[in-house]
Design a protein that fits this description.
By secondary structure, the protein is an alpha+beta fold. It has one domain: Alpha-Beta Plaits (2-Layer Sandwich), CATH 3.30.70. 34% of the residues lie in helices and 31% in strands. It is built from two helices and four strands; from the N terminus they run E-H-E-E-H-E. The protein has a four-stranded antiparallel beta sheet with strand order 2-3-1-4, with helices on one face. Helix 1 packs across helix 2. The longest helix is centred in the first third of the chain and has 14 residues. The protein is globular and about 35 Å long. It binds copper (II) ion. The site of copper (II) ion has 4 residues, from helix 1.
Length: 68
């Protein structure tokens, strides 16, 4: 699977716990993913073999909103 780079706009991350929850959610659908979170900017950068939609759904399932 080719690796894609994504930058998702994620709102609702208010603390380090939220960052960990998002990071964990992404790694549950792709253990190999490289995740960089900028909480103050509401940005989550992901390098992953999974489609964007799969990653976004995993984040939404944790209770955070992902912009299109
Ligand atoms: Cu939090």
């Amino acid at each position: 699977m080719p690796i894609s780079h994504y930058e998702l706009k994620v709102s609702g991350m208010t603390c380090g716990h939220c960052e960990k929850a998002v990071d964990k959610a992404i790694h549950q659908v792709d253990p190999q993913a490289v995740v960089t979170i900028d909480r103050s900017a509401g940005k989550v950068r992901i390098e992953s073999s999974q489609p964007r939609q799969t990653l976004a759904q995993a984040i939404v399932a944790q209770g955070y909103a992902v912009a299109d």
